[in-house]
UniProtKB/TrEMBL annotation:
Keyword terms: Coiled coil
Coiled coil location: 333-360
A UniProt-annotated Pfam family: TelA
InterPro entries found in the cross-reference section: Toxic_anion-R_TelA
Name of the molecule in the record: Uncharacterized protein involved in tellurite resistance
Family to which the UniProt record says this protein belongs: Belongs to the TelA family.
Amino acid sequence: MEIRPTANNNIINLDNQVRSLTEDQKKQIEDIQSKIDIRNTQGILSYGVAAQSNLTSFADSALGSIRSKEAGYVGDMLTNLMLKVKDVNVDSIGSNSGFLSRIPLFNNLVSNAKKFMAKYERLTVEIDKIVDELDKAQVNLMRDIKMFDTLYEKNIVYIKNLEFLILAGELKLKEVKEKDLPNLKEKAETTNDPMDSQEYNDMQQRVVRFERKLDDLKRTKMIAVQNAPQIRLIQGSDEALTEKIQSSIVNTIPLWKNQIVIAMGLLRQKKALEIQKNVTDTTNKILTKNSEMLKQGTIEIQKENERGIVEIETLKKVNADLISTIEETIKIQEDGRNKRVQAEKDMAAMEQELKAKLLSVK
């Protein structure tokens, strides 16, 4: 079965793509096209392999970076930090039954305060160690974020290179279908030489193989296009984790230490007051201050925790892009499947035509 000339809509599409290029880009396309030799089987097989190899190296690099991270390591440190902070129970300054339940018992208050401060000092050392580890983790995450920026830029270059290879290949196919194949066919019909017919048939087969090669490159390009949102998703997770670490270091630890300072300040205030006088008024004042402190601290922490890391508009945009990508992928795969089915039919018809032709040769 003969290969038909390039359809008009494909020609228009190619012409539009060429017109949209800059002069430098057109020269690059022409240079690539000039080096394509449809008659060279090895050249067809190796066409675009370098670009595909770059994409493979890129994927391996990204995968290696992800595997090098200890899963849950930062999350474990943040959890451990929260547990350590919660382990300092301000209520223990008063007694086992509550912060202010034994204010008149001055001796008990002093004793519990000393125990509390000793525990606080031990936990401070442990928390400082965790903070140091979080600092290191934050530096590594920021390095990874920068690395993903580099990978994203490289991916854009891969996509552009593949687009150039595909466009140059399409233009070469157009040239072969419109010039070389008609000339070979005319020659075969004129000479009636079986070898000329064979040469014409061989050229058609090479065109089919090159079309298949371009199809592979288009699929590779689609993989590169899909890599872009995946890179940004991973990078976004690292950025969110970095922000969480920063929030813990900048907000959680100072709030915790301020809580201790306030608690100890209240203790010194109680020691300075005359315990025998106005016990009830003093108790009410301290309760009020602690409740206000607790309310303010809790509200601020809850506000910080409830803040969204990623805007909903961003999530919607990413989701829409991914859905669009999936739909395009399904369409491209279906088109490829239809082309292969049609190619099988065409090759079967060509085989029958060849057999008939060879049988008719006297």
